[in-house]
Specification:
It contains 2 helices and no strands. It is mainly alpha-helical. It is elongated.
Length: about 80
């Protein structure tokens, strides 16, 4: 197995990364300010809860009756 081309590519990649690191190191980051200048509102980061739909007693009874009918049909086949 010839690994010389692999080593050559890795060295080229290393040189590209070193160049990128040097360029980023020259940039001056903005200072981070703490205290009164910044405010934290936890509500901004909460996901809104979906509104729940309420089912009436009549609708619930109707669905329950339909489900009982389905189960009766399944049991009748057995």
């Amino acid at each position: 197995m010839n690994i010389k081309p692999i080593i050559k590519e890795l060295k080229l990649e290393r040189d590209r990364l070193n160049t990128a690191i040097a360029a980023l190191a020259e940039l001056k980051p903005e200072p981070v300010r703490y205290g009164a200048a910044t405010s934290f509102n936890p509500a901004e980061f909460e996901t809104p809860k979906p509104k729940r739909r309420k089912m009436s007693k009549a609708a619930r009874a109707k669905i329950a009756a339909a489900q009982r009918k389905r189960w009766a049909a399944v049991k009748a086949k057995k």
